[in-house]
Design goal:
This protein is an alpha/beta fold. Helix content is about 50%, strand content about 10%. The protein is built from 12 helices and 5 strands. The chain has helices at about 25-35, 50-60, 75-85, 100-110, 120-135, 140-150, 160-165, 170-180, 185-190, 195-210, 215-220, 225-229; strands at about 15-20, 40-45, 65, 90-95, 115. The protein has a 5-stranded parallel sheet, sandwiched between helices. α1 links the parallel β1 (about 15-20) and β2 (about 40-45). The chain is globular, with a radius of gyration of 18 Å.
Length: about 230
């Protein structure tokens, strides 16, 4: 576990990132890629989930890149503990080798903002960090559908209670969220203003009990909404 390195130049407010991976070479490669960008700063590293939790609590970064499989405490438990014990937790992106991974699904359900494949290129990595830092979810619709189908019940006898509480427009928004559309894209598709879409998204999150868009999409599959749709 490393301590924070020297602060960025005066007047700059880069996004602060913690790297959690049990492979030193992976952490080094990630650091080199991220710190080549003026707006990104790696402030700490952890080699195990047990190290990651207290490190993230103490540094309060903006984004955590969390290896999903680590010794002592895996990425799922580390994500759960961080999100459950911090008043203003960071955005967590789990990193994995395979898309169809039960660990990834568990991390998304625990509240991770999304997942990134280790084979992602540098531009994808940098874009993912910036995306989640501004509050969006790193959502791969096809992958979420695959993961949900593999881990949700084969049949849902009855839709979750929140399904009936959605308004027609909220239901439209949730379906579009499940296809991976951004707020701007949903605005154009529905012919309404971006602020209206933002309001509907907030209402969908509240009614599904989801922390973010990724969790809302998972709830849509597990709660029978997508089957009903």
């Amino acid at each position: 576990m490393t301590a924070p390195h020297a602060p960025a130049a005066a007047g700059r407010t880069p996004l602060r990132i913690v790297l959690c991976d049990d492979e030193r070479m992976v952490r080094t490669a990630l650091r080199v890629i991220l710190e080549a960008e003026d707006d990104l700063e790696v402030v700490g590293e952890a080699a195990t989930g047990a190290q990651a939790v207290p490190l993230v609590r103490s540094l309060a970064p903006d984004v955590v890149l969390m290896d999903v499989r680590m010794p002592e405490i895996d990425g799922i438990r580390a994500t759960e503990q961080i999100l459950a014990t911090m008043a203003d937790p960071p955005r967590i992106v789990v990193v994995t080798t395979f898309e169809n991974d039960a660990y990834v699904y568990g991390a998304l359900r625990a509240g991770a903002a999304g997942f990134l494949l280790k084979r992602a290129d540098p531009d994808e990595l940098i874009g993912a960090v910036r995306l989640v830092a501004r509050g969006d979810s790193l959502l791969y619709p096809a992958a979420v559908r695959s993961l949900a189908a593999a881990h949700a019940a084969d049949s849902v006898p009855a839709a979750a209670p929140w399904v009936e509480r959605l308004t027609g427009r909220e239901a439209d928004v949730l379906r579009l969220m499940a296809t991976g559309l951004s707020n701007h894209e949903m605005s154009e598709h529905l012919g309404v203003g971006p602020q209206t879409v933002k309001t509907h998204v907030a209402s969908v999150l509240a009614k599904t009990g989801a922390r973010d868009r990724t969790q809302a999409v998972i709830a849509a599959y597990e709660g029978g909404f997508m089957k009903k749709s």
